[in-house]
Amino acid sequence: MTEPPVPLFRRWVHIREEDRSGVRAYRAADRPVPPGRGRTSIEFHPDGTFVDARPGPTDAPAPEHGRWQPVGAGQLRVSYPDGRGAVTFEIVSVDDAVLQLRPLPPDVAPAPDGPAPPGRET
User: 69: which of 22, 85, 109, 114 lies 20 to 30 Å off by Cα?
Assistant: First the structure.
């Protein structure tokens, strides 16, 4: 994939209860999201940056900034500037309402730098 699909460029909220078979489920933040404490989000920008927001010490979102790049057909790699590494995701599906990402194991991901996926919850 040389350019990711346009619907990717928005803020996505991770809906853990909808994750299936190693695929992370996200809903567009401007759509209804089921109530849930400690939701994480990720926002992709066309300029190759992203913002990963997780609950901080007071449960308020704590944003972390990073970079993403396309690395193969239907794949993108995210990385953080502080050297924590990178992770590659397969874009299983994306439209205006739902994003599904599958983290790829390091031996499948092209030239991985190490594990550090957005929304690092298990």
Answer: 22
